[in-house]
Amino acid sequence: MHSPEVLLDDNDAVYDYYLRHQQNRWKALASYAVLARRFRPRVTFAEGAKQQLKALIRSGRPVIYAINHLSTSDPYTVAATAWRSPLRSKIGRVRVLAKDELFLDPEQRRKVDMMGGIPVFRGKDHGIRAVNAAGQRMMDVCAQRLADGDHLAIFPEGTCNEVDHTRVQAVGSGIGHIAFRAAKLDAAPALVAIGINYGTYAAGVEPSAAEVVSGLAYFRAPIRELPQRPADIARLVKEELQLAVDGAVAHY
User: Fold this and answer.
1) Does residue 96 sit in helix, strand or coil?
2) Please, what are the domains in the chain?
3) Would the pLDDT of 75 be above 80?
4) Integer Cα distance of 154 and 168 in angstroms
5) pLDDT at 86 over 80
6) If DSSP states are collapsed to H, E and C, what string results for 213-242?
7) Phospholipid/glycerol acyltransferase domain spans which residues (predicted)?
8) Which of 61, 92, 96, 93 is nearest to 78 (CA)?
């Protein structure tokens, strides 16, 4: 299938492509393994969460992973975490929302596509009105991918937290709409919050490369029953994500 340029003006073709795009699983596994050796995250779990996550993955139910956002290196930390956790068995079937600018450079796009990226045209980059239709289509694509058996990883804060890495920023309703639309397709997803922590560093700056290596990822126990309204789902996501961040800070 032809791979269109990731441009807002051509978002229909873009999302037609990413509705069906499937990366090479063996290349993905190899790349995730390399990232795990390079970034070496410490993976920890809330009490009982690891066993519950394993059971959830075995059940075949779709899962949305909500992750806090601290650094442009977070996608690599998450990939390395997936390799070092029960998520390894789902590598190649996890979609990851990523801002559209990461798809512009061909070499960078190759890497993002390999990791299961789905582009997001953000209002802060293009204007709220300009991205409305594309945003609706993106949420439909994510819901359908969940209904098709994929998992979905989202940084619901939408941008790197440069204020206080211990406090979750505002969470938009998008993640709630995706879960709601998946449920309408008879594929009600579970929710797993993952908190990332890179230690103590100055506010207003990203953690250094040395701080990113050997960061910590903390898994909350899965939430199997989500509220019915998108706004309520988003509120639950923020609550769970804050608890995950608290866990990551406490276990660092």
Assistant:
1) strand
2) 8-251 (3.40.1130.10)
3) yes
4) 14
5) yes
6) CCCEEEECCCECCCCCCHHHHHHHHHHHHH
7) 63-199
8) 96
Of 71, 80, 67, 79, which is closest to residue 41 (Cα–Cα)?
80
Which residues neighbour 26 within 8 Å (Cβ) at sequence distance 6 or greater?
none
Tell me: the pLDDT tens digits for 197-242? 999 877 777 888 888 898 999 999 999 999 999 999 999 999 999 9
Q: Which two tokens stand for residue 141?
A: 């694509």
What is the distance between the alpha carbons of residues 216 and 40, in angstroms, rounded to a whole number? Answer: 9
Instruction: Count other C-beta atoms under 10 Å from residue 5's C-beta.
Output: 12
Buried/exposed 12-23: b ≥16 CB within 10 Å, e otherwise = eebbbbbeebeb
Give which of 248, 226, 100, 74 is closest to 155, Cα–Cα: 74
Quote the tokens at residue 35. Answer: 């990232």
Helix boundaries (H) for the chain: 11-20, 25-39, 49-59, 74-83, 106-114, 123-126, 128-147, 174-184, 209-212, 230-251
CA distance 91 to 116: 9
Helix (H) or strand (E) holding 169: none
3-state secondary structure of 44: strand
